Please model this.
Amino acid sequence: NAGVMQNPRHLVRRRGQEARLRCSPMKGHSHVYWYRQLPEEGLKFMVYLQKENIIDESGMPKERFSAEFPKEGPSILRIQQVVRGDSAAYFCASSPRAGGGMNEQFFGPGTRLTVL
Amino acid sequence: AQSVTQLGSHVSVSEGALVLLRCNYSSSVPPYLFWYVQYPNQGLQLLLKYTTGATLVKGINGFEAEFKKSETSFHLTKPSAHMSDAAEYFCAVSGNTGGFKTIFGAGTRLFVKA
Model:
């Protein structure tokens, strides 16, 4: 049973370009979470999605960031017009049920975004 | 609202010594508490979790943690450190009120000296 998969593992973009980060949850998991980790900082919650629905996006910056989890295919975190401050590791996690409780979240290996 | 404070961003121990990583939480509802470990360039992996019941929780790799409600703490311990324990450790809290967030602490990097 494959774990959570994220691609690409490393992504380099120039300022002003778009970054698309993909996350395939574990088989049977319908809940996806995105986190951002800055150097020497913990994980900051960004968004929680179920299939075709955004449940909680309170951690998402108001501009340039968006996320989706379509009925088919991976979840996508999209960052438009990237700036140097967007450079970070972005982690995706999945769970079989709502994670705002006792259920463990399973993490992918992360995508390390570098903005030049 | 919930929050997590991990005391000490860096902890260094000698191989074979006791490991103690401190975590205090704040929660207005009964908390669910977690410890995750992150090895370099990898995602987080669950070490252990507390939901209900026994307050002393045993996890993988010989780690355990004790939920102390009166102290709002969930410290992580291991009797004897191994070189392979060197990693970053995150304490996290969530609740059962319908909120979906798991709140993570800033992390503690554990160094193990030979």
About this structure: The longest strand of chain B covers residues 19-26. Residues 41 and 87 of chain B are 11 Å apart (CA to CA). Chain B is about 0% helix and 55% strand. The mean pLDDT of chain B is 91.
